[in-house]
Amino acid sequence: MKLSMNVRHLPGRVATGAFILHTGLEKRNSGDEQAAGIHGMAAGAFPFLNAVPPRKFLKLLAAAEIAPARSCSHRSCPPPWPVPPSPRSPAAC
User: Fold this and answer.
1) What whole-number distance in Å separates Cα of residue 59 and Cα of residue 64?
2) Does residue 77 fall inside a structural domain?
3) What are the distances in angstroms from CA 57 to CA 9, 20, 79, 81?
4) Is the pLDDT of residue 75 over 60?
5) Residue 54 covered by a domain
6) What is the C-alpha separation between 52 and 71, in angstroms, rounded?
7) What is the CB-side half-sphere exposure of residue 53 using CA atoms within 13 A?
8) CB neighbour burial string for 81-92, b if at least 16 within 10 angstroms, e if fewer
9) pLDDT tens string 29-59
10) Per the structure, how many domains does the chain have?
């Protein structure tokens, strides 16, 4: 699979990265009530998360959202939507 950066991909990548970064920053600066709520939902789906304190879980979740958002404009990050093959590519034949 060829990962190339086209100018037409840039607005979508920037918007996606900004959204993911924003949600990560909101979680990083949230309070104990939000941490308990998000942790409760996650622990309901994945019971092994009960062992992790809510604040630590939210900090780790925020870090997991912030890290990839920083690199979404990089060419190694695929676009957030399926890119159809160009009419001249071998995959379109």
Assistant:
1) 9
2) no
3) 33, 17, 28, 29
4) no
5) yes
6) 28
7) 4
8) eeeeeeeeeeee
9) 889 999 999 999 999 999 999 999 999 999 9
10) 1
